[in-house]
Fold each of these.
Amino acid sequence: MVRTVCGDDIANKLELIPLSDNTVKRRIDLMSENILKHLVHQVIAANKFSIQIDESVDIQNNAPLMVFIRYRSTDDFREEFLFCEPLLTSATGLDIFNEVDGFFRKNNLDWSTRAIQPEFYSVLQDVIQIVNFIKARALNSRIFHAMCDEMGSQYVNLLYHSDEKLSQGKIATFALLSEFLEDSTKVTLNDLKLLLQKYLNKLQLELNRYIPENVELSKYNWVRNPFEVSVHEVGEDICGFQEELLDLQASQVLKDNFSRMCLTQFWAQLKDKPIVSREFENALLPFPTTYLCEAGFSTLVVIKTKYRNRLDAQHDMRCALSMNIHPNIEELVEYVQHQGSH
């Protein structure tokens, strides 16, 4: 409009006038929110993902928690910056979990959790806080040791549950529990042992599922090259797996694709083999690039300097670190003023 009314000279001079700092910040925030929206949609569509988490200390002595996410897209496995939020107090496992859990709930991401029996939930929260406090520093452990000595306790170190101790009925370490069982007429030690053993067995099964012991790496040879393995040597315990792998090996098109694509691209673009897809996702998703968080903290050091130490750098970092998702400018300009009112 200015070019039409006033001519090219005036219009060119107006283009040289920079936007205000507030306007630039609003534009960065909008682009970051747009990137996050598209990222969340892709992660929800992928259904499965893994995350890489790390925390450090910035120029203002805050403790930023940085999270990257790895998921399967339509054409490859992608790794993207998810969020960076400061931990306001301590940096224990519970604090980190609560921060991640809050972000996932806010953005409607499926944070799969296992239900814990209500009898143990409140007790577990107290135990987590106590253990984190005692084990956080060597001084706390020494004070705890000295306090137990002064109280005449038979045990002076922090002990953990084990099936052997539970089966032997050694609960003297837990004074309140012992006192409760002595005074209770409805709950016996055997009832408590059965309840605890049932819960611990379930917990052991979950740990074995997430972190299996004695994994035979040879059973994943088909992931590295599905065309050079014998179908009879892999996937015998997975219903339908060998049939789908055999169909894959018989396809000349897929063989040509494997020869010209990188490994993750080939598997990500495989659409019609649901059982094989599930298995290769389980094999490839848990291993994001190791230096993602380190690169993120390097970017944070560049963006949040001593001259900008009050900056909330999360939106700036998302725009800088987003590798595959870019802001949809056409979508943004539909509802954003060229210059906001001041």
Amino acid sequence: MERRDWTRAAWCGTPEQFARVQIQSLSSYRSSEDQFAIQSRGSTSKEILDPVIRRSGNIPWPGDQFGGVQGSSEIQGNLITLLLHLCAPDVYVVKACKSTIQKVGPYLDCPEVNRMIQECLGDETDLMFTDFIKELIKRMAKDMQDLFPIFVMTNVSYLKSQWTSIRANAALVTGLFYAELLPENKPKVSLETVCDKLNRLMQDESEEVRIKASQAISCLFL
């Protein structure tokens, strides 16, 4: 796979363009994960994880020059990737995701969400992912409700992740997002599709995945 140098010193564009490219590069992470998994069975997670998220932890953020509404949209589009990889098996990825989420927090236009992110995702904090994500989603529901149908289906796309922790938490987070959908937004998500994907995880070899899939299914009918 081609490796590119996204360091600031190697970039010839504006700070705004550099930050946008960094955020856009995150969207390729899941497909890269799948490709490396196929090519590197038996390797450690550190060896097969694409380094893009680790690099993104060192984004030299350009402050108010980020790019306004368009930049915020790109951040929101990659937020689920970052959140789910807070429980990745690679500690370097987790650390980079914490750092990156803290950097993008102010651009989410949700003061309560950003406050929680800054308080809970420090390098020295021992993150309790389930408690964190439950409370975060409740806060997100107040100001980001229009994005929740997209968030639900983005989580569904991670239900086939190679890594047990991400597969399990993607299931739980799918249910939590769906449970917070307003009535007018629920028709935008295919409940049948979501149920089918979660039901398949009830046969997963991992007990953790089966338990969280069960919890997610219960959230769908709250």
